[in-house]
Amino acid sequence: xxxxxxxxxxxxxxxxxLMLIVPIxxxxxxxxxxxxxxxxxxxxxxxxxxAPVKVSMDESGLLSIADAGTFVVQYMIVGPESAGEPxxxxxxDVKIRPGADKIVxxxxxxxxxxxxxxxxxxxxxxxxxxxxNEWVCAFFDWKGGAAVVSPVDAAKYGRDIAGPRLVAALSxxxxxxxxxxxxxxxxxxxxxxxxxxxxxxxxxxxxxxLTYLDAYVPSGWDPVDIADIAAWSxxxxxYAEHYYTKDITFKVTELDLPNTINVDITAxxxxxxxxxxxxxxxxxxxxxxFDRFDEKKSKVVTSHEGTEYGFARSLEAGPENWRKSxxxxxxxxxxxxxxxxxxxxxxxxxxxxxxxxxH
Length: 359
Hints:
Elements: H1 2-42, H2 46-49, E1 53-57, E2 63-67, H3 71-78, H4 80-83, E3 88-90, E4 102-107, H5 118-129, E5 135-141, H6 143-146, H7 151-171, E6 179-185, H8 188-202, E7 207-213, H9 229-232, E8 237-244, E9 261-264, H10 277-287, E10 303-304, E11 307-308, H11 319-325, E12 335-336
Helix pairs in contact: 5-10, 7-8
């Protein structure tokens, strides 16, 4: 009996200690951050501390949205709650047509960027395939939050800061969008995911299109949280898709997501299976051909049993295409795109049948 009482008392003391120590530790961390913030202000680092989101537009009509924040300052010092509500600077060159009520935004993932890179290339391809009187085509660059050692930290920044910052920028644009299409690669899937949730709450578009390219799901994170439009906004019509390859990143980027159409494009990667292939393939589905020198002669495969995937599933490709997308059902079966012949450059890997022997 004494032993039981002693154990109970020890447990109560441990719980009391935790109740006292944890708040103190948290307070000390907050105090330390405040000291760092004061120091940064004193030494002239206000620009880094209050890193804005900048919006600009080039002569072709391509919209650039750039988050000037970094993981160390915005996530570790300022904190997601404050950093997620940035100062948005919209340049005077941003001229959006009054009737443009649809927008597509492309963003990158871990250790990557948007400007002068593939997100800008895909957004530019959309510019060339859409009417500026109806569409705004943009890329989102959050390279300061993506330039971290761990992809998990990139996903955290994307989910907690970059996503809300993207929505803050969209909220400053003069137009209200009835249709929103967000495209994210790898850890950037969490950027578009958190942005989509906030857009449903704040901007309430009638229709939503979510495209995930080799979506990165860190260990312990729930894939059910991705593209869960039904929970965020039951009245919003949404088509969500996930294109992935089985590559060196293994299971963390090749999950069949429960709320999307899942399309495995491993078999049509012309060379070694790459984590980056899905965004090159998606761009090729818009332009009709691969741009990288070693893939230029490769066929762009987008069809499976009479249904086209990639660009063809978007409203950008036309109303009929979009209507068909909304009829596609999510399910347990993964769509697998395949070539009838081995990809260019790899024909020697396919066993050849011997012809009939002559006698």
